[in-house]
């Protein structure tokens, strides 16, 4: 909007100069004066993209008719945008040449135009007022704008650095807490399981202790990966070398649940086909979280795991029966299904969880593949 107003103002000023109200009367017909004024306004409006048309029009209008408004505005833009010092020096040299041509034209036309452009004192005054001062003003405003932009960019960089530092400190604090508390407790579980395996008097107890130790060691490995990610945004090298779980690892996960007494049955439906690794990993996590909840809340309840390969989606369904006997539930934070829903929805899928008639529970996910 401001460039529209600038164009209107330049048109009005140029028309006033052409009429002799603010300069030398041009003696041109009114239609020609209106055309020149309109062209000046259009060039001023276009200056938001390029001010060179305004400079060319200003040079011609000043040299031939002493119409100074377009050259004055072009000089301001030159001071604000041209590189220093060569660009400014080249522009001032061109303006001196324009003033020289204007002096020659003024001598040919005589009268007021000769007085303004051909006499040395008036010529220097016009050069200072129309060219020198606008260039100086453009230089000053350009420096102010440039300094303000640099200050804003510096403040933005500092803000980003402070935010990154705060995030890094918080991640390090969480990593320390997880290492000092969770890793320590899981390490004790692994040690006790190993001791029980060695001292067990029967084979069944030894197998159960070995299973607990293996699960604990796997949990410690996963925990090390998580701690590495927390301490470094790029993640540890070990996490990059160890492939994330996919559906190929699902049988091993189910065997771990079977080993502690849960009857888990897997059903694959449809034609198995390769899908994206993120989809397989998410499907694995759905089954893992569902089985974890069975361990916590349903104990020895029978569980059915369905993997369905659809035309455009991979569907995962985990349905468990009611527990056969009441048992003490293990403590939980209550965030497992919330995080699982976020993971599925990030891939454009949907997650449905609901209690079943008879005391069972259903976890069903549909993931676009």
From TrEMBL:
Catalytic activity line of the entry: ATP + protein L-histidine = ADP + protein N-phospho-L-histidine
Database matches in InterPro entries: HATPase_C_sf, HATPase_dom, Sensor_HK_TwoCompSys, Sig_transdc_His_kin_sub3_dim/P
Keyword Transmembrane recorded: yes
First-level EC class: transferase
Every Histidine kinase/HSP90-like ATPase domain range: 280-368
CDD domains, per the entry: HATPase_UhpB-NarQ-NarX-like
Domain Signal transduction histidine kinase subgroup 3 dimerisation and phosphoacceptor, chain residue ranges per copy: 170-233
A single GO cellular-component term on record: membrane
EC number: 2.7.13.3
GO molecular function per UniProt: ATP binding; phosphorelay sensor kinase activity; protein dimerization activity
UniProt keyword terms in alphabetical order: ATP-binding, Kinase, Membrane, Nucleotide-binding, Phosphoprotein, Transferase, Transmembrane, Transmembrane helix, Two-component regulatory system
Pfam families in the cross-refs: HATPase_c, HisKA_3
Gene3D superfamilies linked to this entry: 1.20.5.1930, Histidine kinase-like ATPase, C-terminal domain
Domain of life the protein comes from: Bacteria
Transmembrane segment boundaries: 54-76, 88-108, 120-140
UniProt protein name: histidine kinase
UniProt source species: Nonomuraea aridisoli
């Amino acid at each position: 909007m401001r460039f529209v107003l600038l164009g209107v103002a330049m048109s009005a000023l140029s028309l006033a100069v052409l009429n002799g109200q603010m300069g030398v009367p041009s003696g041109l017909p009114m239609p020609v004066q209106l055309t020149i004024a309109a062209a000046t306004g259009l060039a001023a409006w276009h200056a938001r993209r390029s001010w060179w048309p305004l400079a060319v029009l200003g040079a011609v209008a000043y040299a031939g008719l002493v119409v100074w408004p377009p050259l004055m505005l072009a000089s301001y833009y030159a001071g604000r945008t041209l590189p220093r010092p060569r660009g400014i020096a080249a522009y001032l040299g061109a303006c001196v040449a324009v003033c020289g041509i204007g002096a020659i034209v003024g001598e040919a036309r005589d009268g007021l135009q000769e007085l303004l452009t051909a006499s040395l004192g008036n010529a220097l005054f016009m050069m200072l007022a129309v060219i020198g001062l606008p260039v100086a003003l453009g230089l000053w405003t350009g420096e102010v704008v440039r300094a303000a932009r640099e200050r804003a960019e510096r403040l933005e960089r500092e803000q980003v650095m402070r935010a990154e530092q705060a995030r890094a400190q918080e991640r390090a604090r969480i990593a320390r807490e997880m290492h000092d508390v969770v890793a320590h407790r899981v390490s004790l579980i692994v040690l006790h399981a190993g001791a029980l395996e060695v001292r067990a008097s029967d084979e069944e107890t030894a197998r159960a202790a070995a299973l607990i130790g293996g699960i604990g060691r796997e949990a410690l490995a996963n925990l090390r990966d998580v701690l590495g990610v927390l301490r470094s945004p790029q993640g540890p090298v070990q996490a990059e070398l160890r492939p994330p779980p996919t559906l190929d690892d699902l049988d091993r996960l189910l065997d771990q649940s079977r080993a502690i007494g849960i009857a888990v049955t897997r059903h694959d439906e449809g034609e198995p086909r390769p899908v994206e690794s993120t989809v397989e990993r998410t499907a694995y996590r759905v089954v893992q979280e569902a089985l974890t909840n069975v361990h916590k809340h349903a104990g020895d309840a029978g569980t059915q795991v369905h993997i369905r390969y659809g035309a455009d989606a991979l569907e995962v369904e985990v349905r468990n029966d009611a527990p056969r006997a009441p048992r003490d539930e293990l403590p939980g934070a209550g965030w497992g299904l919330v995080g699982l829903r976020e993971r599925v929805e990030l891939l454009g899928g949907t997650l449905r969880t609901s209690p079943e008639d008879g005391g069972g529970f259903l976890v069903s996910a549909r993931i676009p593949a």
